[in-house]
Amino acid sequence: MLAKKVDIPRACLNFRFFASTIINSSSANHSSFLENVGAVNYSIRSPIGVAGLISPWNLPIYLLTFKIAPAIAAGNTVVCKPSEMTSVTAWMMAKVLNQAGLPPGVVNMVFGTGPNAGAPIVQHPDIPVISFTGSTVTGQAITEMSAPFFKKLSLELGGKNAAIIFDDADLEKCIATTIRSSFANQGEICLCTSRVFVQKGIYDQFLEKFVEQARQLKVGSPKMQQQILEHWLARSTWLRC
């Protein structure tokens, strides 16, 4: 369901947004003054060359296009390494880009595992910038591999988000919000809640109601309109839990 509601629509918006920056910017520099906060928002079009883009599996199209669109809008070419667990969606998107008339060689897809496909991109001397979304452990490895080349890095790594519930809070609203934030996309997003701190006075009550609502979540096919949770992507994910 998240692919239908978020992944594909947001992927389209990514391309439209960064395409609009090209159309609406008359020069390499574009700025606007935000009077309400007393700040200047500006962007500079300064191509680097070839960007290495490594994306995850949990929102495979949205997060990949969020890297591709700004890179090519700035005048770069890209070498993409999508997750080996969602390679088909990336392959299909590459076909769409080709059908849309994107010149050959602007967006390049490399399929494979991290050690076999990702590492060569990170260590290639002619790729000066790397954008990675994924685990903290892999992000650390990318930092170490790219350090000898002094590459520019953009790393979006794992989160450990907390919900804090005080005893004067609206318990029903808090439980509904915490359930939603904990189990969105089966909990397979870095912004999901993974820790809940509850004030002692309402702890037992919160725990009872939270468990009760969590047990009501249904698991099934994305084609089932009433379901909330889909299956985990891989057995390895289940084993880590």
UniProtKB/TrEMBL annotation:
Superkingdom of origin: Eukaryota
InterPro entries tied to this protein: Ald_DH/histidinol_DH, Ald_DH_C, Ald_DH_CS_CYS, Ald_DH_CS_GLU, Ald_DH_N, Aldehyde_DH_dom
Active-site feature positions: E156
Domain Aldehyde dehydrogenase per the UniProt entry, residue ranges: 5-225
Keyword annotations from UniProtKB, A to Z: NAD, Oxidoreductase
Cited Pfam families: Aldedh (PF00171)
SUPFAM superfamilies: ALDH-like
Family, as annotated: Belongs to the aldehyde dehydrogenase family.
Matches recorded under PANTHER family: 2-AMINOMUCONIC SEMIALDEHYDE DEHYDROGENASE
Protein name: Aldehyde dehydrogenase 8 member A1
Source species of the chain: Desmophyllum pertusum
